[in-house]
What we know:
Blueprint: H1 2-9, E1 13-17, E2 21-26, E3 30-36, E4 39-42, E5 48-51, H2 53-56, E6 66-69, E7 72-73, E8 76-77, H3 80-94, E9 104-109, H4 115-127, E10 132-137, H5 138-145, E11 156-161, E12 166-172, E13 175-182, H6 186-201, E14 203-204, H7 207-217, E15 228-235, E16 241-247, H8 248-271, H9 275-284, E17 286-289, H10 298-306, E18 310-312, H11 319-335, H12 342-350
Parallel strand pairs: 1-9, 9-10, 11-17, 17-18
Antiparallel strand pairs: 1-2, 2-3, 4-5, 4-6, 7-8, 11-12, 12-13, 14-15, 15-16
Amino acid sequence: MLDYIFGMFSNDMGIDLGTANTLVCVKGKDIVLREPSVVALDKETKRVLAVGAEAKRMLGRTPESIITVRPLKNGVIADFYVTQEMIKFFIRKVHARSSLLRPRIVISVPSGITEVERRAVQESAEQAGAREVFLIDEAMASAIGAGLPVSEPHASMIVDIGGGATEAAVISLGGMVVSKCIGIAGDEFDEAIQQFLRRKHNLIIGEATAEEIKLRIGSVYPLKEEMTMEVKGRDQATGLPRTVLISSEEVRGALKEPVNLIIDMIKDALEETPAELSADLVDRGIIVAGGGALLRGLPDLIRQETELPVQRAEDPLTCVARGTGRYLEVLDEMQRNGRVNLSKLRRSLNQT
Length: 352
């Protein structure tokens, strides 16, 4: 009962703690925060100078006394202290008013992480000020957020392409029958573009420029009208600033290797899917979510390679965050009636 009373006054939240971006969904308020998962630190004292969008603007532009850190790698914590500080900052930002009450937090985690890594996520949130921490598999959260009927005795398949990891899962009766996770996603797309420009044009560019190229002219499937873009960087030989013109066809070639690895993972998941559920997917197909789902032509390429219907989620960037928010709602419903049992919580979620 005490937890229920606390829950009435604290901003309980669901967090999509992503490698590239963090989204926070607050009970009854939908998504209230979207920030890059970046922290700027004083190199000597390790004091936090900026978090989120402000810190991302500093990437590649800081003096030697300041370092910019992305504390998560491939969807898991690479720097415990910086992650803790980042979560603490986001909690305080969401809690616009002063409060001594600490929130309950639901955090999505990649299905392939170890128990040690799961504990690191949980402890990081607790140290940042959470009263209780619940973890949900990222693929499941994404499927729930995308509106898939995860509780039905039929197959639903989700492919979530984030910043640091891609997950594919076949879900039936509220559980993941098959799940695959690979550390290839948006960051690797950016790195592939950087390597291509260095190799083909002797041009060195930063992460932000690579991401801009991906968003503006990136594609993985032939376009009706190919595009071009002027790219500014540093000449590898002379060290001087230089501009080159690149095409969407060139970028597509640069992205081919990491994208093919994701396609292979999807095929592996399909090969391990039981026959009855495979039959369901012939009609139901695959839903693609995450920031990587916005890459031009990706649903078309997956459709071509799997021969299944493929659709992009309605709002692919927010699927995981919305899924954690729904999990939080069910948690709240159960907590009103007494002590929370996690197995009952899962069953209740499946019935909604």
